[in-house]
Design goal:
- By secondary structure, the protein is of the alpha/beta class.
- The protein is built from ten helices and 14 strands.
- The strands form three sheets. Strands 3, 4, 5, 6, 7, 13 and 14 form a seven-stranded mixed sheet that branches. Strands 10-9-8-11-12 form a five-stranded parallel sheet, with helices on both faces.
- The chain is globular, with a radius of gyration of 19 Å.
- It starts with a strand and ends with a strand.
């Protein structure tokens, strides 16, 4: 099969022919139709190292996808060959910028009926990150005030919508060109972070959902109420020794039930996803080079893998 791989010491993807994977016990083989892009992924530890710490060569990126179940391993139930699915797979496994990838039943769900394969591939990691940060970790409740940093980002888009769906008062930061967009998503108050200090507008909040890190994260502690909760996905926090930051930081995990819940909301129209660009498989390397692919607006870049 065709796959895009990152070779040792490289920063670009190389199209290669590799053996098609075979699903083991409990695994599912997916014929990939589309794969979502996180452009920073090529530099992540799981991309360059194995789980046991050795250098990794030839990793296939793109760990969220939509596709069709091609085969199932022993012990797999509740999934049928030919079923349209969406989901994610393990960060240390080969991803979905390939004609086939392997995943687990708990990492996928039926594709939202209202979405195309391209649209569906833009959802899993971003939506699960927002869901787990707001609901599992921050325990956001109706009537609480939440500040979302990066409201027009690929995760912020879902965080704003999900917080609003829970009945929270949503405040979000964004750049000037995205203020109206974030307001349309459901934010009650949108702050242009280049022109205003969010501390001067947000007041005290129950939850901060941070996607930015650095100075923005440090300043955000000051707007939390006494019992407020901080959640951050900023990569610069990973590996910190600060116990306060360690408690706030998390990495998304696959979750079948949550993917089902997201799919229901998408099909009901209470949640929307956005695709900023569609890139052919042969040009996947450009999608991972930040700034090389023209975008039509906020949302995720998606690689069209197969028809």
């Amino acid at each position: 099969m065709k796959a895009m791989r990152l070779m040792t010491g490289g920063t670009t993807l190389v199209e290669t022919e590799v053996p098609q994977p075979t699903p083991g016990p409990g695994e599912i083989l997916v014929r990939v139709q589309a794969a979502g892009v996180i452009h920073t992924e090529l530099g992540w530890y799981p991309t360059t190292h194995t789980k046991t710490g050795e250098a990794r060569n030839g990793a296939v990126p793109g760990h969220e996808f939509s596709g069709i179940v091609a085969a199932v391993g022993d012990g797999v139930t509740g999934v049928e060959v030919g079923q349209e699915i969406y989901g994610m797979n393990d960060w240390f496994a080969d991803g979905a910028t390939a004609e086939y990838c392997v995943t687990l039943t708990e990492s996928i769900a039926a594709k939202p009926k209202s979405l195309s394969p391209i649209e569906a591939a833009s959802v899993p990691i971003s939506a699960l990150t927002a869901w787990q940060g707001l609901f599992d970790r921050a325990k956001l409740q109706a009537g609480e005030r939440v500040l979302v940093h990066g409201g027009a980002g690929v995760v912020g888009i879902f965080a704003v919508q999900l917080a609003r769906s829970r009945g929270a008062h949503v405040i979000a930061t964004a750049s000037e060109q995205n203020l109206a967009f974030v307001s349309e998503l459901g934010a009650d108050d949108v702050i242009d972070y280049r022109k205003e200090r969010f501390e001067d507008r947000a007041g005290k909040v129950d939850v901060v959902f941070d996607t930015v890190g650095n100075e923005t994260l440090q300043r955000s502690w000051g707007v939390l109420k006494k019992d407020g909760r901080m959640v951050t996905i900023a990569s610069n926090v990973e590996g910190t020794d600060d116990p306060k930051l360690k408690a706030a930081f998390f990495i998304v995990e696959p979750n079948h039930e949550q993917l089902e819940g997201v799919a229901r909301m998408l099909d009901e129209g209470t949640l929307r996803t956005f695709v900023s660009a569609i890139v052919p498989f042969e040009q996947a390397g450009q999608a991972y080079a930040n700034g090389q692919v023209p975008k039509v607006g906020p949302g995720k870049i998606v690689v069209a893998v197969t028809e």
